[in-house]
Specification:
By secondary structure, the protein is an alpha+beta fold. It has 2 domains: about 240 residues, Glutamine Phosphoribosylpyrophosphate, subunit 1, domain 1 (4-Layer Sandwich), CATH 3.60.20.10; about 170 residues, Rossmann fold. It has 16 helices and 25 strands. The strands form 7 sheets. A 7-stranded antiparallel sheet has the order 3-2-4-1-10-9-11. The protein has a 6-stranded antiparallel sheet with strand order 5-6-7-8-12-13, with helices on one face. Helix 4 crosses helix 5 and helix 5 packs across helix 6. The chain is globular and about 70 Å long.
């Protein structure tokens, strides 16, 4: 759950379908998949449908069921359509504008394409400045528009869109999982480090789907085939499925470890590893690292529940359901004044008093961001009669910002920055506090076969950032510039 006042967010979820047999209603498939990926972004969503090379779409601010009304879905239903893409987005503060919603549909000299992007480019500022100096006009403030410009320019220089994609990858730094739809092809791309997940599924009647998580494959009746390799370009077209691996193996693989801890749905499989099992393993490690005598283990819904199960299993302490989550509190819940902010946790979560009354409680959550919500949850338990509250966190302390797609607030807002564990515990008011170690956090996904990015815990970035003093068109501070990044055209 992290802090309700400042929850962690991951940038986006992407999806694409290529129905070779023509037996699927691709717009309905995208709708179902986006519902399955809604947890990856709640600010905006969109869909693009390809009927005989003509790409049309709809995108807007709002949740999937708000944006895709029956009237909109009727307009997107194309009986002869064999391809479609979809996207859900979380927008950072200051960029909640329709122009940043995706897929972005671009019409250029070689045709039309639709592009969906998950991640953050670390050299977006420099690329954008170079493009603007060369006459480009931007309508929004997202990295995705930068990729669109580069891709269309490269498309004019190369015979195929695959070659244009490969050339564009040479210019990009940072995190990007892309689904690109041209008139005749559906293309999936993953950055050479593999920061964000992207997988392939097969359709029963023939064809392929690409998705950020395997739970979206399940939603459309597709069968999981494999994950796309970091640096790989995968193309689905009338000839089947083919792969370009010229960018593979050039960088160490660094999946964002928070995909397993928090972002992904527990029923997803990423890099061959169950997210649910990875969270259970986090709880087992916590029990090893921070044992305590207690009567019951409970988790904070939703991402703390699996870790709580793992802690209970490893410790032998009974697992209990400690909270009921109000499923009707969405992104629009108003916290206009201090009293409302104080009551926000009570409205979202309610304690099952019989589980915790007169008991020593082990409380498991996925993270502590600012500490305010953790303190309120602990107070809820004490008010319900808990004798002791021992707080365990299934991630190391957040101390540093992320430049690759996780919306972590400024370091000054992070409770762990400059504080010891005892000092943090004094702020949140638990009897004891224990974090998962950085040693164990990279061991959560057994058999995943990839390394992990832990820079938000350690400050050790694969690309060392340096400050860029600039703001975007919505006066939002832009990301920091990494040393040694490429300039446009290099």
């Amino acid at each position: 759950m992290s802090d309700f006042a400042y929850p962690l967010h991951e940038e986006c979820g992407v999806f694409g379908i290529y129905d070779k047999a023509g037996t699927e209603d691709v717009s309905v498939a995208v709708y179902s998949a986006l519902y399955a990926l809604q947890h990856r972004g709640q600010e905006s969503c969109g869909m693009a449908v390809n009927e005989d090379g003509v790409i049309t779409g709809h995108r807007d601010l709002g949740l999937v069921n708000e944006v895709f009304t029956p009237q909109v879905m009727a307009s997107l239903h194309k009986p002869e359509a064999h391809m479609a893409t979809g996207h859900v987005r979380y927008a950072t503060a200051g960029s909640r504008v329709r122009a940043n919603a995706q897929p972005m549909i671009v019409r250029h000299g070689r045709g039309t394409m639709a592009l969906c992007h998950n991640g953050n480019l670390t050299n977006a500022v420099q690329l954008r400045n170079a493009l603007e100096n060369d006459g480009a006009i931007f309508h929004g403030s997202s990295d995705t528009e930068v990729i669109c410009y580069l891709l269309t320019r490269n498309r004019l220089k190369h015979q195929s869109i695959e070659q244009a994609v490969a050339a564009t990858m040479d210019q990009l730094d940072g995190a990007y999982s892309l689904v690109i739809m041209s008139a005749t092809k559906l293309i999936a791309v993953r950055d050479p480090r593999g920061y964000r997940p992207l997988c392939i599924g097969t359709l029963p009647g023939g064809g392929y789907v690409f998705a950020s998580e395997s739970c979206a494959l399940d939603a459309v009746g597709a069968t999981y085939l494999r994950d796309i390799e970091p640096g790989e370009i995968v193309v689905a077209d009338p000839d089947g499925l083919r792969s370009n691996r010229e960018h593979c193996g050039k960088q160490p693989r660094q999946m964002c470890v928070f995909e397993y801890i928090y972002f992904a749905r527990p029923d997803s499989v990423i890099e061959g590893c169950s997210v649910h099992e990875a969270r259970m393993q986090a709880g087992r490690f916590l029990a090893q690292e921070h044992p305590v005598e207690a009567d019951v283990v409970i988790g904070v819904p939703d991402s703390g529940l699996d870790a709580a199960l793992g802690y209970a299993e490893a410790s032998g302490i009974p697992y209990g359901i400690g909270f009921i989550k109000n499923k009707y509190i969405g992104r629009t819940f108003i916290q206009g004044n201090q009293k409302q902010r104080e009551n926000s946790v009570r409205i979202k979560l309610n304690v099952i008093a019989s589980t915790v009354r007169d008991k020593r409680v082990v409380l498991i959550d996925d993270s502590i961001v600012r500490g305010t919500t953790s303190a309120r949850i602990i107070k809820l338990l004490r008010d319900a009669g808990a004798k002791e509250v021992h707080f365990r966190v299934s991630a190391p302390p957040f101390k540093y910002p992320c430049y690759f797609g996780t919306d972590i607030p400024d370091q000054k807002m992070l409770v762990a920055t400059g504080r010891s564990v005892d000092q943090i515990n004094e702020i949140i008011g638990a009897d004891t506090l224990g974090y998962l170690s950085t040693e164990h956090v990279v061991q959560l996904a057994k058999g995943a076969g990839c390394g992990f990015c832990t820079a938000c815990f350690t400050g050790e970035y694969a690309v060392k950032p340096e400050v860029v003093l600039s703001t975007d068109i919505h006066d939002r501070p832009l990301r920091q510039r990494p040393k040694g990044e490429k300039k446009l055209g290099e």
